Amino acid sequence: MTLLWLRLAVILYGVAALAVLPAALYNRPRWRHIAVPAAFLGAFFHFVSIAETLYAAHRALPVDTHETLSMLGLLLVVGFLILAARYRTVSFGIFLLPIAVLLAIVPAFHPGHEEISYPLVRTGWILLHIALLLAAYAAMFLSLIASLLYLIQERRLKEKRAESQRGWLPPLETLDQIGLNSLRFGLPCMTAGLLIGSVLALQSIGPAFFADPKVLLSIAMWIAYILMIYIRSNSGLRGRRAVYLSSFVFLVMVAVWAANSLSAVHRFKTP
Amino acid sequence: MNDTTRDTTHDLPIEAAAHSVPHSSRLLLLGVNHTTAPIAVRERLAIPGHRLADATRTLADQPGIREALILSTCNRVEILTVQDGVDQEHAELRAGLQAPTLSVIKFLHDYLQIRETDLEPHVYEYRERDAIRHLFRVASSLDSMVVGEPQILGQVKQSWTVGREVGAVKTMLDPLLQRAFSVAKKVRTETQIGNTTVSVASVAAELARKIFGSLSGKTVLLVGAGKMSDLTARHLIQQGATTLLVANRTEAKAQSIADALRTPAITTGVIPLDQLHEQAHRADIVITSTGAGQVFTPESARAVLQRRKNRPVFFIDIAVPRDVAPEVNKVDGCFVYDIDDLQQVAMQNKAVRNREAEAAESIVTREVARYTDRISQAPVTESIKELLLSAEEVRQHEIARTLHQLAGQPLTAEQLSAIERLTKSLTGKLLHPQIAALRELAAERESDDQA
């Protein structure tokens, strides 16, 4: 049943990803009434699938790669739904929904069978650590998309094309708010997620924890994140420069994610 | 419905049912609009809002008029009536007008004291399907001076409300008007006919919204005085801007503009022209119309942006020669539209509207066909229902009579079921040609009406 729910979610995300194109790009509001409910239903079935998986495995958190990616996909769809409700825009769905499909399609149709033997996987603190960091990743990704859309809309307005007036993109100030608010939401998530992870790792590994490449990259990511919010809030950084900055922090995040394979901490081995 | 159809005798009431198809009411629309009548005629015909109820009631009380609706706007006056049918061959013809038309003209003459000869060259007249089509087009804003403008739908709804209140809009006009509203909604949602703005001032306001989202709380700076810049500023205020600053060579003139635009909700102020660059950062939208040339250069624009912490600024340059150097548009966060840019966007938007109007016309054509089909089929469906009901009553009556005669010999369940099947099959087969004839008759009438 778990796979069935997940497959259903992927199909619904696919429907939403297709419906969002005419809704946003061709200004056909009827399609919005398909895209948003399909994404909502997809998120619901996705949640049911994840909950069933974790319940069946007698644990409360996603730990293998597929589960984690799938959870990130769910968070991105939730982000899309929040933006659709709060800012009345479905433009973000053009990017978020296909990515959610990609993140969920592999576990849905080629489920992995990773054996998880971490001693801490059944503790609530690890759940918080992972959930908070995934939320921070999703927020960062939203912010990056908002910056990219800002850049596109800015160009269209500067090129004085009539399409910029009736186009699919939200107003510049709305995009700016979405970008900044996403970062502001992501910062406490990332800070708390990293702190919880650090305490747990210190308890199980000891001071050697700080020599781990993933840990070092995570600290760099956190500093970059804070710097980005500081610069954006104080200098009003927008447009091209905001995209450069967001892209840089996003790359650091991807590096942190990739560092899982190099990390002793995340394999729960002492180096 | 004719009583004959309810008769439970053995006569099958096809003739009565056929006569029940209403062929006696006539839909007639008479009107003038901005294309057929000059304002001098339209203003004589215009019926102000406070007199609309009385006028509609008076019209509906005219002999031969069953239902009525009056639509009176600055661009059109239209009268839609449902009248008692008048056979084409026997219609009273006078001055080229038929009797139903004359009764409306007579109303206009009596109520508004307008002579028939004054009206005749300007009046258009639509009947039946053409009247439905015209109504759908008007409600969908396809017949408006500015195609796609949204006000007309509200005006039609207002007339409909008044018509219902005075009892002039009833069983025939009410569903027709409700259908017109849903067609108008369909046109709005399925085409982009209302999504573009076509005047310079409204294009500027729309662009401002694309930059700032809501204009609520935004500050507009008016540099110089001119008709177009004043109009644009007023438009931005209408769209939600709450503060207006005015800078002008003569401070008294600036003050008079500020005073003219001040309301309890709008804060206004005057900036001395020599302090323009120091104060410009307070404005989100700058409208310039001095014609003095190069009031804002890239350097001064950058200084403004720096003071605003890079929050965007929208320059609307209506002056010729231009007040804002074109290079300012290249500065990050500055958006410059001069009068040509705004006019070009307005023209492109007009082209989009015209393109969308074609799609909207197809929707209207489709909806007219659907509506007329439905109303032509409705009486037939009703008659068929009556026919079937009548036949069923006869069948039940005959079964009861037969069972009564066989009272001494009770039948088994299988036998009763066989009688049911037999009688149902018989009535079905007997009625089939009659129902087919009814449908054929309705179709013939529909094609006659269309011809």
Descriptive tags:
heterodimer; A: 271 residues; mainly alpha; B: 451 residues; alpha/beta; six-stranded parallel β-sheet; 10 strands
What does this structure look like?
- The complex is a heterodimer of chains A (271) and B (451).
- Chain A is mainly alpha-helical and 271 residues long.
- Chain A contains 9 helices and no strands.
- In chain A, helix 1 (2-25) packs antiparallel against helix 2, helix 1 packs antiparallel against helix 4 and helix 3 (65-87) packs across helix 5.
- The model of chain A has no long low-confidence stretch (mean pLDDT 81).
- Chain B is 54% helix and 14% strand.
- Chain B has helices at 14-19, 39-45, 49-60, 99-112, 116-119, 128-139, 151-165, 173-190, 200-212, 227-238, 251-261, 276-279, 298-307, 339-405, 413-450, and strands at residues 25-33, 65-72, 76-84, 124-127, 219-223, 243-248, 267-272, 285-288, 313-317, 334-338.
- In chain B, helix 14 packs antiparallel against helix 15.
- Chain B is elongated.
- Chains A and B meet through helix 5, helix 6, helix 7 and helix 9 of A and helix 9 and helix 14 of B.
